[in-house]
Every structure is written in C-alpha cells, then in structure tokens.
Amino acid sequence: MSCWGSNFVRFIADNLGGDGAGAIDSRVPVRVEGIDNAVLLSAGERHTCALIATGRVRCWGLRGLGMLGDGSYGPGSSAPIDVVGIDDAVDLIQCGTSDFSCALLSGGSVRCWGINTHGQLGNGQFGYSTTPVAVVGLGGNGAGLSPNEAILHGSWYDPATSGQGTGFDIIRSGEQWVLFATWYTYSLDGSEKLWFTLQGVSEPAAATQTLDLFVTDDGVFNRPPAVSARRVGSGTFRILSPTQLRLDFNFDEADPRWPADGWMTLTKLAGNPGIALNLQERQLEGSWYNPVTSGQGLNIDLITLDHGPAMVFMPWYTYSADGSQRLWLTLQGRAEPDDESVITLDILLNENGRFNQPPATPAERFGLARVRKTSLDTMQVAFEFDTDDPRWQREGTMTLQRIGEFRP
Q1: How far is CA 73 from the centre of its chain?
Q2: Cys bridge to 184: 48, 191, 195, 356, which one at CB 3.0-4.6 A?
Q3: With contact defined as beta carbons under 8 Å apart, do 193 and 163 qualify?
Q4: Where does residue 181 rank: exposed (0-12), middle (13-18), buried (19+ CB within 10 A)?
Q5: pLDDT tens across 247-258, in order?
Q6: Rounded distance, CA 38 to CA 26, Å?
Q7: Residue 339 half-sphere exposure, CB side, CA atoms within 13 Å?
Q8: CB 177 within 8 A of CB 142
Q9: Burial class (CB in 10 A: 0-12, 13-18, 19+), 62
Q10: 97 contact partners, CB below 8 Å, separation of at least 6
Q11: For the chain, which residues score pLDDT lower than 50?
C-alpha cells in the first residue's frame, strides 16, 4: 500500500516525516511501512486507517483527539498502530472527516473512536474516546445496546433513601440480552439487610421492562455451597428520562420483612457525560461471581469524573459467616491501578435503614479491598475488615469470573 500528498501530521506513514514543522510531503506514492495485506483504506482529515486481511484495523497520523484508537492521546504517529479491541471479523471501516473513525464488524455492530463533541461516536455520550466504543442500537447479533438499554445500565438510587439502591447490568445470553438488576435495601422494621435480584430478557425498544424478582437463601459468606434463587414477585422499570427511572414492585410471597407492593423513583448515579471510559475501565464493569458460591457476588459500575480515573462503585451481595443473614456492602474508590495492576478500594458499610423509607444512611469505612484483573473475564478480590464483627470473615480472597461476555 502506498500514499502521497501532505505529510504535515504523518498521513503517509513512511517513517520519514515529523509531526508539524519538518514533515516531508510527497507528490509521488510512498510505501506505507508495516502494512502488506490491507483490503480497505480510508483517509480522514488528519489521520488514515487501513483494514487488514486478518480483521485488524491499523491507523496513523494525528493522535491528539484519540483518533488512532490505541488507548492514548499523545503525539502523532508516522507508523501504523493497531486499534485496540478490534481483532477479527471487521467488514468495513470508514474514517470520519472530523477526527473520528468507525468500524463495521461482521455481526452488524459498529465501533467508533476519536472526537465526540457532537455525539459522533454514537455511544450516548459526548466525551472523546481513545478506544473503540459501541454505537447504541446497531447491534446486529446483539453486540450493541439500544438507547433504552444504555440508559438502564448503571447504578440507581433515591436521594431520600440513599444507602439503598439498584444496579443494572445487561448480559449477553446467546442471541439475546438479559437484564440483570441487583436491589439492595433493608427490612421494613430495619432489623436486617435485604437484597434481591431482578432478571428477564431485554426488550430493546421498550421504555418499560418487567422482570422477575428473586431472593436467595442459605448462603454462607465467601463459602460454598452455591444456592439457588426463588421467584418471589416481579418488578417493572419505566424510563422517565435518561437520569430518572420508576420501579413498581409486587411481591407474590408474603413476608413481614417486605411490603406486598409499592413503587419508587430512582436517580442515576451518573458522572460527567462528556468523558468516556477507557478500555481498561470498561473491562471492569459488569457482574462477577464465583461458581462454587453462586448466589452471592459483585456488581461493578464505573462513573466518569471531571479529572483523573473513573470512580468504582461496587455493591457486594453476600451472607453472614453463619448463614443466618443476607448482607451487603459497597466498595468504592478510583480505578487507578498500582504498578502491580491492583486497584485499592475502601469497603463501606451502611446500616439502620428501612425498606424504601427515609432517612438516607451514611456509609462508614469498614475495611480495604484490593482488586486485580487476572484476565479479561476473571479477577481476584482480597479483602480485610477493620472489625472482629462475627458476621464477617476477618480477611480472605475471592476468585471471580464475569457473568456473560465482555461487551466492548
């Protein structure tokens, strides 16, 4: 493959030019170093991308707005660089004329990266992205989320009852997407903590989703056996706005710990919509569990901030050490790994709340957790509590795996 023309920001990729002053233009074709099997080429305003026969995408030119898709900003590159996260089944790539690029994958989903000041990337946000993000609603085989599914995904709470809330994950199951929500709260009299899960097949175009409501019993803190969930009712989520949701719930199983029915209005725990998560942050998000202790686990949400790494918000659903109670905690902190790729988070405890009733309950620091990804779909969480409370195991480690497939 050869290119020619202006090389002011390293369009030609001949490794001869610089970025800016001193770059070498060419009136004749110059061989692009490092690309021998391109099947498609697309030139943007200040960068160029090639689709390789193996299914990868490689880009070169200006990098300052994230348009090379390699996970960084930095100076430009005169040599082709691999776009991260796209390594097979790319049918078509098209560079935007305004510093962004998009790739069409074989399953019909679309990934875009680069500038996003006007929503060019199609991911429902306005922040630049240095790595490919999914265009919502263009799913093909289900790889992308619809606009309504993208709204649901994340953490929700009522400010008046802060300390309890709901986390939404959207999990691929075959050709379908499954909505998986975790609801953490308290009993009506406030004497114990409760948590439930809500599950059902997603209806992508629907602003209202009705899910089965489940409860699990007889688990033991971070120990086997796995326990099964039983259906106790249903919950209907209705999108009121991108940041507001209404939940109507109905319990079929009478229990003095919860009401027969009711409703609540929830607010999304949202960060700066103008900033996108990077690839490493997105790989943390989702629902995680240990198959041998199934029935307990973690839900991880990442919230973008104005500056620095995203905030990790991680509800942890479990049981007491003697199995007599359901318990939940939250892990919170910045998604900032150390030299050994470990993210350190505070373990926080909320208590003394009442089911769907004010007041808000403050969180108190209760210990420390160290989270380390061991692969795309596995992680280890080492925890240590500051208390000798018999409800908890003082310290230990959990080996967890992702529920479902990573959604790029």
Answers
A1: 21
A2: 195
A3: no
A4: buried
A5: 999 999 899 999
A6: 21
A7: 0
A8: yes
A9: buried
A10: 44, 45
A11: 9-22, 140-143
pTM (2 d.p.): 0.72
| 175 SS3 class | coil
- Residue 95 has a pLDDT of 65
Show the tokens assigned to 358: 């004010």
Pseudo-torsion of CA 339, 302, 304, 56, nearest 10°? 70
Run of H or E including 367: strand 364-375
Residue 322 burial (CB count, 10 A): 10
Helix (H/G/I), strand (E/B), else coil: 217: coil
Asked whether 85 and 408 are in contact (CB, 8 A), the reply is yes
3-state secondary structure of 21: coil
Task: Report strand pairing: 244-251 vs 311-319.
Answer: unpaired
Is the peptide bond prior to 362 cis by the omega test (within 30 degrees of 0)? no
Q: Which residue has the tokens 């199983």?
A: 253
What is d(CA 401, CA 10) in angstroms, rounded to the nearest whole number? Answer: 42
Place of tokens 């809500």: 198
26: β partners = 5
Beta pairing partners, 263: 248
pLDDT digits (tens, 9 = 90+) for 346-357: 999 999 999 999
Distance CA(253)–CA(173), nearest Å, equals 28
